[in-house]
Write a structure and sequence with these properties.
The structure is a single chain. The chain is of the alpha+beta class. It has helices spanning 69-83, 93-112, 131-137, 139-146, 213-216, 234-248, 263-271, 282-287; strands spanning 11-14, 39-43, 62-65, 85-86, 121-130, 157-160, 163-166, 177-180, 183-195, 217-225, 253-259, 275-279, 293-299. Helix 6 links the parallel strand 10 (217-225) and strand 11 (253-259).
């Protein structure tokens, strides 16, 4: 499974302003935001940069909803790692990556806690592997996970508003490592399941119609898989898990947005049972300075769950 961004060329961004809804890897709907006074060159990941697949021991793979803040932080870090590529000449990259991860972490935490208007219910679903297995799959990913700051939070805490909240509030390092049942694990894939009528700046689904649409409609967003572990079906398994959870919520119609030129993502969603419903007007794509989006739909009857 390849990772294509919504932006085909290098972006030179003056970070003295705030802009929102940057692209995600697989489904063009992201909530990452950023604002700073420095200037960075940020490049999205193109198809030519996809890595050779590594063997994955599926028996140790866990795909589940996020339960703790350290896992949510790990997912946020993976999104920054997947959605951005900084040029080597840029300065202050670790600080800026941490800033982006903190923005995503706080935003998704608020959505999960029900504090964002328009979102009835949100879940962050992750795929993770033990750190010990990552060390044999990717030296780069393993090195990033092991290169931990003493200020990073990896621990346990009390449960609050649907998430286990860590007792200490210290600056974190932008790493995708967390602890589950005493075992160090790495988030290698992630997505958000959003129960809502619409997502900001995106095409709105048409199903179901009438009363109850806000209860029975949901969207996928922020879908990504670590580049070292693509083409192993992790994206398909993440989507399959999200369909099961959505059906448990009472969702009848599930949507995902994808850039029209993102062929690998379109193939993934087609394989997962999604079909075309609508496309974004050209004027809207030009206004938002992005490739045109497609809106894909699947009905969650018993025959569509897997």
């Amino acid at each position: 499974m390849a990772v294509l961004s919504s932006y085909p060329s290098t972006l030179t961004i003056s970070l003295s302003f705030t802009y929102q809804n940057l692209c995600s890897s697989l489904n063009s709907t992201g909530f990452l935001q950023q604002s700073t006074s420095r200037r960075f060159h940020i490049r999205t990941v193109g198809a030519s940069q996809v890595c050779t697949p590594h063997e994955v021991d599926k028996s140790s793979l866990i795909i589940a909803e996020t339960e703790a803040e350290d896992e949510l932080w790990a997912a946020s870090c993976l999104r920054v790692r997947s959605f951005y590529e900084f040029t080597p000449s840029s300065y202050g990259i670790p600080d800026h990556r941490r800033y982006l991860a903190e923005r995503e972490f706080e935003a998704v935490k608020e959505r999960i806690a029900g504090k964002r208007t328009g979102f009835r219910r949100v879940s962050c679903i992750n795929a993770s592997l033990p750190l010990s297995q990552i060390s044999s799959l990717s030296e780069e990913l393993c090195a990033e996970c092991k290169d931990l700051s003493t200020k990073q939070i990896i621990g346990r805490g009390s449960k609050l508003e649907g998430l286990y909240v860590l007792d200490q509030q210290l600056p974190r390092s932008p790493r995708s490592l967390y602890t589950r049942n005493g075992e160090d694990r790495v988030v290698v894939g992630t997505l958000d399941l959003n129960q809502c009528l619409r997502l900001p700046d995106e095409i709105t689904g048409k199903k179901p119609e009438g009363i109850g649409a806000d209860f029975m409609r949901a969207y996928l967003s922020n879908v990504c898989v670590a580049k070292e572990l693509q083409r192993h079906g992790l994206g398909h398994q993440l989507v399959a898990k999200s369909k099961i959870i959505a059906q448990e919520w009472g969702i009848s119609d599930l949507y995902v947005h994808v850039a029209v030129d993102n062929e690998p993502a379109r193939k993934l969603y087609t394989k997962s049972g999604f079909v075309f419903e609508n496309d974004e007007p050209a004027w809207q794509a030009r206004f938002l300075d992005r490739p045109r989006r497609l809106l894909l739909w699947i009905g969650l009857s018993s025959g569509h769950v897997l």
